[in-house]
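RECORD TYPE: inverse folding
INPUT: structure tokens
STRUCTURE:
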């Protein structure tokens, strides 16, 4: 019922009376009033005027389920949406959901993670109320070798969403960081369960520093948030809606075409590695060269000092001038 009232208020252009709401929803005016109060508690600003009714002044910036659902694109593939105040890790929760028998795309979102996971066993800090931790549980019909391309799709989706909402131009540090200015604003961790030739599920976990203004000592020098650069608080439900919208558009094409040709140009425009000096540490070797951008398989192409061009699909890539690589 809260969700229905919110939908009506969101679509309305003026105040809607309590009587109209109660008739439309077939409930008492007291029930309407109670739901309005709950929405206010969740951070929605609702103007109430005697004899005129209610008007939604401002959407909530809090991560609450109704607001996230409303922000998702129409006909979203994510029918299951779970929003937590606190959870160990949204990736871990998505895994548990699959293990409990859930099938079909799901969105697991948290306002705080107590054991947020970064790449290669690192920690990911998600302080309460300021960031977004979101995991997309997906069961795509793609070869397991293609799962890493979903990290690149998620990265470009966040760039597009941030640009849409704030006009800020984020860059992707291939394959899984987003950078604003010279600092990290988002990280992506993609995990998979698969057989040799069959994907059970892929988890695309994205952590975005949204409204943090203060950072722990351990990351202060290398991390920033969208609000710190934008100068204003950003609605987290709206941001999730925009990210999911952008992701779904790309994902649909990717699952059909099974390569990244369709987004190469835009990706490479957003890729901070392009034209910069890079150091790549793979299992076998350490390479120095200039970034050329990704190819249709999502590998990073690098022109080495001797002029040869090589591709890397894994490994740690440092970009000269970024995160302390001088
Ligand atoms: C990295 O930069 O090392 C990747 C960080 C990924 C963090 C996200 S937050 C949502 C999801 N849940 C996790 O525990 N990790 C990912």
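DESIGNED SEQUENCE:
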């Amino acid at each position: 019922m809260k969700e229905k009232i919110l939908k009506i208020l969101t679509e309305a252009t003026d105040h809607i009376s309590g009587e109209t709401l109660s008739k439309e929803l077939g409930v008492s005016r007291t029930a309407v009033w109670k739901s309005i109060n709950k929405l206010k508690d969740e951070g929605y600003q609702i103007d109430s005027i005697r004899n005129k009714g209610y008007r939604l002044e401002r959407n909530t910036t809090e991560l609450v389920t109704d607001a996230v659902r409303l922000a998702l694109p129409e006909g979203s593939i994510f029918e299951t949406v779970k929003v937590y105040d606190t959870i160990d890790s949204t990736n871990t929760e998505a895994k548990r959901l699959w293990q409990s028998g859930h099938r079909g795309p799901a969105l697991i979102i948290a306002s705080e993670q107590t054991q947020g996971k970064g790449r290669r066993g690192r920690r990911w800090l998600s302080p309460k109320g300021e960031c977004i931790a979101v995991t997309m549980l997906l069961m795509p019909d793609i070869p397991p070798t293609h799962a890493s391309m979903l990290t690149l799709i998620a990265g470009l989706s966040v760039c597009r969403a941030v640009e849409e909402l704030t006009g800020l131009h984020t860059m992707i540090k291939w394959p899984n960081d987003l950078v604003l200015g010279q600092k990290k604003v988002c990280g992506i961790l993609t995990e998979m369960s698969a057989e040799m030739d069959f994907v059970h599920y892929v988890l695309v976990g994205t952590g975005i520093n949204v409204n943090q203004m203060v950072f722990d000592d351990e990351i202060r020098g290398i991390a920033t948030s969208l609000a710190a650069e934008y100068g204003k608080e950003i609605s987290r439900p709206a941001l999730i809606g925009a990210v999911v919208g952008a992701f779904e558009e790309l994902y649909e094409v990717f699952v059909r075409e099974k390569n990244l040709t369709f987004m190469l140009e835009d990706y490479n425009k957003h890729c901070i590695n392009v034209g910069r000096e890079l150091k790549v540490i793979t299992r076998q070797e350490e390479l120095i060269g200039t970034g050329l951008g990704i190819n249709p398989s999502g590998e990073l192409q690098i022109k080495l000092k001797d002029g040869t061009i090589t591709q890397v699909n894994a490994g740690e890539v440092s970009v000269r001038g970024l995160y302390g690589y001088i």
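NOTES: Residues 89-91, 113, 116-119, 122, 124, 133, 135, 176-177, 187-189, 205-207 surround biotin (CB under 6 Å).
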